[in-house]
Specification:
heterodimer; A: 50 strands; B: about 140 residues; Beta-Lactamase; 3 helices; globular; Ig_TPPC8_1st (chain A); Trafficking protein particle complex subunit 8 (chain A); Ig_TPPC8_2nd (chain A); Ig_TPPC8_C (chain A); Sedlin (chain B)
Chain lengths: ~1300, ~140
């Protein structure tokens, strides 16, 4: 393999080359200084021979030809090992120079993936990095364990102006002045010597020099003496000299290879010619610019000039160097190789070096082998070199001279690599060398680095980039931060070059490199590396990585003074919710610091602080629908629509035919776009969240809007606007500044808030259009901490929304609103609407409607969703004092009827003559009754019409209230039928106070309807003890009720009975009228509701209990809290559908001496079932055992019909068909009385009707008789239809007669 | 128990869906980004390695100084990655296997969207308990 083809080969050819030690006299040096160069610098450009084409024969007999050859010219004073610190200082400028060039790059955008992947290797690993690598290796020059830096030859230079030049030559090579390495015996002082006389033509004629040369040749040998004439230019004076060398310096000639734009070959050409112009008197040399670009231009000019002027001096130097290399150095090396080879062969063959060498001098056999190997290596006889190195390796290993061993291993690795034989061996050697260097500690560290660099180059040559990068990474650990940074960067680029490219590794190593750069104060490099890594971490969900990269890039840009880019990067991290408080603080502080350094406010699109939750965005605009408060908007539209069905004119939803899906609306011309009214605020609700734990000051939150007054033009393409408007917005992202508020057309509200850490707030932003047109809501803007203006545009993706189709019911969000002419608007509220109330609470409230506009409104209608809770009152109620107006009055009020008509079907029409004038307020009474416990939503929709006709004929005002109703009194009734009297009932009322602290005063209990009369039980006429029900207390009261309409009760007389009973003493005349407007209406509603829940088939009556909140004694209660509890559809317990009662006189006086007594009694049978029923009554004469309830012990002992009657029979409840109180009677006794009219009867009873069966009894002796000797069978016929079906029979039953005691006395 | 152990579950889209510092060393903020970097970079290695073997447990795939990255790849190419400085390979294997079971349970949850972040506190507690047990 041609070593020149690989970078490693070229590197080796240039770095491991013979060293020529240069010794000059001060005068010779001064002659060179005239042109601004040292002697070495002058010769160096000519020390590289591209095509030297010299035949070489080393140990083997076969000669080969060397093509490229280089010699290193080094001053004797430099032939020494440098301190690491000093050497490292030399490297620093290499890095920092490169960062000057990096600056313009930093201003451009960061590279993207495609850019980076497409880059050639040379660009990834720029020239300065290669230079850095070389410099790093050179810090190891003249190390003691290697010999390839040992001088091969010595060039002694004397000026022709020197006195006694011959003795000067001798003095120069005085051992005292030679480098210590030579004196200490590490290097061989017996080297090739070459003598040169330098003649400055300005100093005198060339003859002097020629004489000197002749003298030298005679004394020092003819071959080794040369003459070089310089400074042929007559014009070259001191002042111009510096200028003329500027291009030379700018090209970086001091460093042998130069800047990026010239290849090695070009450079040498250029250099040679540049040297030429400094030597010739030619004005062109002033054309040389001071920078590289002009220098190149200059060069091309010089090439032209070359045609006209013979290049005297460069050719002279070139010839001299060529001669020196090919005729002296190479033959000398050949010869030395042969000698050493001979020597080694004999020594090694004779005996194995048994003396352990602690100190290797040049005379020791190991050093000689090493020199042999290195010389062979330099002359590219790698086989020979390798065999010697291997020989050495075993020796050094035995000697445990690890550093030397490692050095030899390193060289053998390189040999293997150059021979391209065994990759495995090469790798093994390098690995071995590397680890051995590391093992020996700090002294081997840099050597390890150099070894690593070779190794990595070797791997790169073979395309093993991954391995190379890990080598770079390993050596980076051994180096100070600056070096490690450059090495890490190389590791990163290797990852990128590996196949497939390992981008994440690339990014990571760049970040590591950046950190190292930053630590060694190379900020521009740090930024550059981070920036190059950015694309790897673009859109990265790894939060910490993202924050670290952006924060550091931002911060460093800030330090460099590139503030806009700094802020751009810092913006990425300020919304870091996952970081700790201190980190968030740090991020934010840095951000604001740079923002303030900018010195101006600036706009940031999509600023992440605070976060606007765009999905929470709601636009509230009022067209014909207006809302009383903002909370009402959240009620779903369907709820309102349902409520307003009868309210709004049906014309607006009429469809011409059933195929026409679009309802014909008066707003048709605006198509689908929303409508808002000029002068009325369009509200936008949006939620914003502070993701940080730090409070954030957000000020001036406002909407960005556009209003175009050209309605006609826009209304046609409103839909077009909505469709593409959103997309354009996203793509173009116009600066926020173009949307400056136009105060003439609309006003936007400004909102300032401070968001605490982690807080979310919902804000409402307003825009009030002032003129007609099309209002476009564009976005939101806000100012963060008075320094950064953030803005965000609303994004509307109409197509996406359509595709989803999930949120069908949701009002589509449209950012275009058609502004129409100003309309009247009512605002309304219910005054003192309670948010909490006890169940049963009854209040008179006021509905206030205010007209803000200049026009009157009329035709007001109202619909209430839940009439159980709210019922509009009468206009007359307004002036009345609450609770007084409910009191019973003499005259019957008819208005309740009219009210019911008005309020039919939940719709309430205000009187036609009511108009609300401009600026006027209408108050209307409205009754509130907390019907049931629980959370109740009340919806009220108010409809009104405008006087001035416009697009919108009517509007609705929507109000929504939610009331929490707490349980208060729990009331239940138990009704039992009185057994003694038909149509009389005993009522037990159980009142439980369920509140924890309130107590209530029971005021009044009313039966609804005129049919019923209620009275206290006579036994407990005073119930004052139960007037107050305290918290958690339960009270039971007993009442008696009577059915007025029942025939049997007629005689009771209605005067003394009433349907109300005052429970509170002293208030008997102060009862409330449950038959009047609000109570009756609410009762009607309750009855309707509770009727749905009632289970039983038959219901008797409804009760209304009115109570008052007792209130605390401390708190005077001017507005009395009144509670009304309605219990409807109460019915008696255990009631059979048919019941009966015997009626007749209880005491009869009769003269039994004349005749037997005939008693007429009636059996009253009542059918309370809903269906017709048939009843059969049968009387028995001879079988008294069935129902006689007399005690057996006095049956015969007492004369006549006297019996002891126990009292309990009287209060015995109605016997059911099942009752089993049969007692064994004396069976064969004769009945004391005889039924005398009929023995059996069959009656058909209509539903809810009474029938009377007349009965007669004949008694023969005075006494008390129980006329219960009869039996009753009944059967209900469910309905006609059911009757047909034989299987289904209605309930049936029967029973013995109830006891009916009649006392018959003997008349006197 | 390992002094440093950073456990991450990476979805097949290379998004970390669960992260936990389970080491006994006190948590330092500047280390968490460091760990993320190492684990993120190790994905490059996993990417190659995962297709070369049938085993789910890939053992240690990458190292950064004295920190080792061990990886376990599930069938859906969800990667369980552990950055650790301990040496017990068996423990790590058991840890991965049990976490895999937990992960499958999460996966079976019909409300869990595959590839989304695992927010279950139960899962977190269990993983930490497993880390105490095995690492």
């Amino acid at each position: 393999m041609d070593p020149l083809r690989s970078y490693l080969g070229r590197l080796l050819l240039e770095e491991i080359t013979p060293v020529v030690m240069v010794l000059t006299t001060p005068l010779a040096e001064a002659a060179c200084k005239k042109s601004g160069l040292s002697f070495v610098d002058m010769l160096s450009p000519f020390s590289l021979f591209k095509k030297i084409d010299v035949p070489v024969r080393t140990a083997s007999e076969v000669p080969y030809r060397l093509q490229m050859f280089k010699i290193r010219m080094v001053y004797a004073s430099d032939v020494r090992k440098e301190d690491y610190e000093v050497a490292d200082e030399k490297i620093k400028p290499v890095v920092s120079e490169a960062d000057e060039k990096a600056l313009p790059d930093l201003l451009s955008g960061p590279p993207q993936l495609e850019d980076v992947l497409g880059k050639p290797e040379a660009e990834l690993c720029p020239l300065w990095i290669k230079k850095f690598n070389r410099e790093l290796m050179r810090t190891l020059s003249f190390s003691e364990h290697e010999t390839f830096d040992h001088p091969v030859a010595c060039l002694l230079v004397v000026s022709s102006m020197d006195k006694e030049p011959i003795s000067k030559f001798v003095d120069l090579f005085n051992t005292n002045q030679l480098p210590s390495l030579l004196n200490e015996g590490i290097m061989d002082p017996q080297i090739l010597k070459h003598y040169l006389v330098l003649h400055d033509q300005q100093e005198g004629p060339q003859d002097i020099a020629v004489n000197v040369l002749a003298e030298m040749r005679s004394t020092l040998g003819s071959n080794d003496c040369k003459l070089l004439c310089i400074n042929s230019s007559t014009e070259a004076d001191g002042s111009n000299a510096d200028n003329s060398w500027l291009p030379y310096k700018a090209l970086g000639l001091n460093n042998h290879e130069g800047t990026c734009f010239l290849s090695m070959d070009d450079l040498n050409e250029v250099l040679q010619h540049l040297v030429y112009i400094m030597c010739v008197p030619f004005p062109l040399r002033f054309a040389g610019g001071t920078n590289a670009k002009e220098g190149k231009l200059c060069c091309s000019v010089i090439f032209l000039a070359l045609d006209h002027y013979s290049s005297v001096l460069p050719l002279l130097i070139k010839d001299f160097m060529q001669d020196f290399a090919s005729n002296h150095i190479i033959p000398y090396m050949e010869q030395k190789i042969r000698v050493l080879n001979q020597q080694v062969a004999t020594t090694r063959k004779g005996f194995r070096n048994q003396i352990k060498n602690l100190w290797y001098t040049f005379t020791s056999i190991e050093s000689q082998i090493r020199v042999l190997g290195d010389f062979a290596f330099m002359l590219r006889d790698y086989e020979l070199a390798l065999s010697n190195y291997r020989l050495l390796a075993t020796d050094y290993k035995l000697d445990k001279a690890w550093k030397r061993f490692a050095g030899v291993q390193e060289m053998s690795g390189l040999c293997y690599s150059m021979l391209d034989q065994s990759r495995k061996d090469a790798e093994y050697c390098m690995e071995n060398a590397f680890s051995t260097y590391l093992r020996i500690g700090s002294s081997g560290q840099r050597s390890a680095t150099r070894c690593g660099l070779w190794w990595a180059e070797m791997l790169k040559t073979r395309g093993q980039y991954r391995e190379a990068s890990s080598v770079y990474f390993r050596i980076s650990n051994e180096e100070p931060s600056l070096h490690s940074a450059v090495l890490l960067e190389q590791a990163a680029s290797c990852y990128l070059l590996s196949s497939p490219p390992m981008l994440r590794k690339y990014g990571f190593h760049l970040i590591l490199a950046g950190n190292s750069y930053y630590m060694s104060d190379q900020k521009k490099h740090a930024v550059r590396t981070y920036r190059n890594a950015l694309f790897v971490y673009k859109q990265n969900p790894w939060s910490y990585i993202n924050d670290h990269v952006h924060f550091n890039v931002g911060r460093w840009y800030g330090v460099l003074g590139i503030l806009d880019v700094a802020i751009k990067h810092l913006l990425e991290v300020i919304a870091c919710s996952h970081q700790s408080l201190s980190t968030q603080n740090m991020f934010l502080n840095d951000f604001f610091h740079y923002v303030q350094s900018m010195g101006k406010k600036f706009d940031v699109h999509k600023l992440q602080l605070p976060v606007f939750n765009m999905s929470s965005l709601r636009v509230v605009h009022e067209d014909h629908r207006t809302y009383a408060s903002d909370a009402d908007v959240d009620v779903s539209e369907s709820t309102w629509q349902e409520l307003e069905e009868e309210l709004i004119p049906s014309s607006s939803v009429v469809r011409t035919n059933w195929l026409d899906t679009q309802p014909k609306s008066s707003l048709r011309k605006f198509k689908d776009s929303s409508v808002c009214v000029a002068g009325e605020a369009v509200k936008v609700n949006v939620e914003l969240k502070n993701p940080l734990q730090i409070p954030v000051d957000v000020s001036g939150i406002s909407l960005i809007c556009q209003l175009s007054t050209n309605l006609d033009a826009l209304s046609s393409d409103v839909s077009g606007l909505t469709l593409d408007g959103g997309k354009d917005q996203v793509n173009i992202e116009p600066s926020v500044s173009i949307f400056e508020t136009n105060a003439d057309n609309f006003i936007v509200s400004q909102l300032d808030i401070i968001l605490r850490g982690g807080e979310s707030k919902r804000v409402q932003l307003d825009v009030t259009p002032k003129v007609e047109g099309v209002l476009k809501l564009v976005g939101i803007r806000w100012t963060l901490s008075n320094s950064v203006v953030g803005y965000q545009y609303f994004e509307f993706d109409a197509q996406k929304k359509n595709k989803k189709g999930k949120k069908g019911r949701r009002r589509p969000f449209n950012n275009n609103l058609v502004v129409i002419k100003g309309l009247p608007k009512l605002s309304g509220s219910i005054e003192h609407m309670p948010t909490k109330a006890f169940a049963g609470d009854l209040q008179l409230l006021k509905l206030n409607l205010r007209n803000h506009s200049e026009f009157a409104v009329k035709g007001i209608k109202m619909k209430i969703s839940n009439p159980r809770f709210l019922i509009p009152g009468d206009s007359s109620d307004i002036g009345l004092e609450f609770s007084h107006c409910l009191k019973k009055q003499k005259q019957s009020v008819v208005s309740s009827k009219s009210m019911k008509e008005n309020f039919k079907g939940l719709l309430f029409v205000f009187p036609q003559d009511i108009e609300i004038q401009a600026g006027a307020t209408l108050s209307w009474p409205i009754w509130f009754h907390a019907a049931t416990p629980g959370n109740v939503s009340l919806y009220i929709s108010l409809y009104y019409e405008m006087e001035n006709s416009s697009d919108i004929k009517y509007r609705t005002l929507r109000m929504h209230y939610s009331v929490e109703v707490l349980p208060s009194l729990d009331i239940s009734f138990a009704i039992s039928m009185s057994s003694s009297r038909l149509q009389e009932y005993i009522v037990r009322m159980d009142v439980v106070n369920k509140t924890p602290s309130e107590s209530f005063v029971l005021h009044q209990l009313s039966c609804v309807g005129s049919k019923w009369a209620i009275s206290a039980l006579t036994s407990c006429s005073s119930i004052s003890s139960v007037e107050t029900v305290s918290a958690n207390q339960a009270v039971s009261c007993f009442f008696k009720i009577k059915d007025f309409e029942a025939d049997s009760c007629k005689e009771a007389g209605s005067g003394s009975y009433r349907s109300d009973i005052a429970l509170h003493p002293g208030t008997s005349g102060d009862v409330f009228d449950v038959a009047r407007a609000p109570l009756a209406d609410f009762h009607f509603q309750e009855r309707y509701r509770q009727g749905k829940l009632a289970k039983g088939p038959c219901s008797l009556l409804d009760f209304v209990l009115i109570s008052k909140a007792a209130g605390n004694s401390s708190k005077p209660s001017p507005d009395l809290q009144l509670l009304s509890h309605h219990t409807c559809h109460c019915s008696a317990r255990n009631q059979s559908p048919v019941w009966w009662l015997m009626e007749g006189p209880r005491t009869i006086t009769h003269d039994f001496s004349k005749s037997c007594c005939e008693v007429s009694i009636q059996l009253v049978i009542h059918n309370s079932a809903e269906h017709r029923s048939s009843v059969r009554v049968a009387t028995f004469d001879a079988m008294p055992e069935k129902s006689q309830t007399v005690h057996p012990h006095d049956s015969t002992s007492v004369q006549g019909g006297w019996y002891d009657v126990s009292l309990e029979n009287d209060i015995k409840t109605i016997s059911s068909a099942k009752s089993t109180h049969h007692e064994k009677q004396y069976s064969k006794s004769i009945s004391p009385y005889v039924w005398c009219s009929l023995s059996s009867a069959q009656i058909d009873l209509q539903p809810d009707s009474c029938s009377r069966v007349p009965l007669k009894v004949c008694i023969f002796a005075p006494g008390t008789y129980n006329f219960s000797n009869y039996e009753l069978q009944w059967k209900v016929h469910p309905s006609k239809r059911a009757q047909v079906n034989e299987d289904v029979n209605g309930p049936s039953g029967g029973g013995p007669g109830h006891p009916f005691y009649v006392t018959v006395l003997q008349s006197v | 128990m390992a002094s440093t152990a950073c456990f991450v579950i990476v979805s097949k889209n290379d998004i970390p869906i669960y992260e936990a510092e389970v080491g006994s060393a006190p948590k330092k903020e500047d280390l968490s980004y460091h760990h993320q970097f190492i684990l993120h970079a190790a994905l490059d290695v996993v990417q190659d390695l995962a297709w070369t073997t049938n085993a789910m447990f890939l053992k240690s795939v990458d190292r950064f100084n004295d920190l080792v990255v061990s990886v376990y790849v599930s069938m859906t190419h969800t990667r369980f990655m552990l950055l650790h400085d301990s040496r017990s390979e068996d423990g790590i294997k058991s840890f991965f296997q049990e976490v895999h079971e937990l992960y499958i349970k999460i996966f079976l949850n019909p409300l869990y969207l595959p590839g989304s972040r695992i927010a279950s506190s139960h899962f977190d507690t269990k993983v930490r308990a497993l880390a105490r047990k095995y690492l």
